[in-house]
Specification:
alpha/beta; six-stranded mixed β-sheet; 16 strands; Rossmann fold; 15 helices; 4 domains; four-stranded antiparallel β-sheet; Alpha-Beta Plaits; about 425 residues
Amino acid sequence: MKPTEGTILTVMRLSGEEAEKAYLANKEIGIKELFDVVLRGAEDALAQTPEMLPVLKQTGVVDAGGAGFVCVLKGMVAALEGNPYVAEEKKAVESEVKGAADFTEFNAEDIKFGYCTECIVDKNEKYRGEDTSGALYEFIKSIGDSAVFVDDEEIIKLHIHTNDPGAVLTKAIEFGSLATVKIENMRNQHTELIADAAAEAEPVEAEPEFAPIEKKYGFVSVCMGEGISAMFRDVGVDNIITGGQTMNPSTQNIIDAVMKTPAEIVFILPNNKNICMVANQAAQIITERRVIVIPTETVPQGMSAMIAYNPDGEVDDVVAEMKEAMGMVTSMSVTYAVRDTQIDRFNIKKGQFLGLVEGKIACVSGDSYSCAKQLIRGMTGAMYITVFYGEGVSAEQAEQYGALISERVGGGCDVAVLYGGQPLYDYVISVE
């Protein structure tokens, strides 16, 4: 709530003030000219950060976050000019590193407030709306420091360092129900950091940059859920990256997984539309071996592609067959709404369950099973149906649903019900 001067927040604020001055002086200013002002203001502010923050002056550097913000602005200006912005060589960045933090110089007894306490509160009706919970903010400020407080329409998110986390939670539930809670003992964290630093100081053998090549083809798959991950391994995937809807892996996560795959050619199965771009970026960066992204947008597509994989085929044929297989599957799922919204013909309320076909809403219901039953209407003409049930569904419920599908589609279709263990989605359904 009271940010320290000399950080990225200072650089942002001062550059914004320069932009405001420029606009007030000339309201006809063009976007390019305005961005030039913003960039100059940010660069000037960055140069001042060592005078604002003693630790920066002591080590002879500017604020790293502020430097990153300036780099982003340079990229924006370059884009407006139609010119690419080339990043500095990595060596130039590394030369500025002065050393790692030494936690042994800090005494745990100097920690005034010992518990880092965080929670998210789903507001009750009385406090719905923005900025309605000032009394809670004033209370947490009075019993600790490092306060962060977000007072949104439907939730409160708070963070405080305190010696009485129980008092924080007791006060918070006056405003609604606790959605998440996290309490950490910072004195114990300090002890662990010292132990970790000591362990890192021990010499270790460097891991090989890439796993040695042992075969022609290898696979990396992105997915969530213990059962789904196990099934991908069963059909030949070498390395699993945990990720999917609401939890996209980074480019580096994918690069690391490819590095651990002992194959000459590595296929990546993103299994989510939002992850395809990151996977393509990783494939472009890696030069040590050939990387091919199979653009699967769902888990059923990824599983279908793996089943079609021919380990003896030529690479172009392998890719073509996998893409053909993923095109022959229809993906369905059941999830829930996190907020009230209006989409197409559906007026959706928070907590209702949504039936999706290829990512588009097909039905809405008050409970998961009813929603899943409605999806059966679109299962005509299927030969194979696989139901992956999620962590919130019992085996009995899933088997009941499988039996209902078998009854609806008839004896000419194979129906399999398997534990997926995926969060967020009660059912993920593959229809081939």
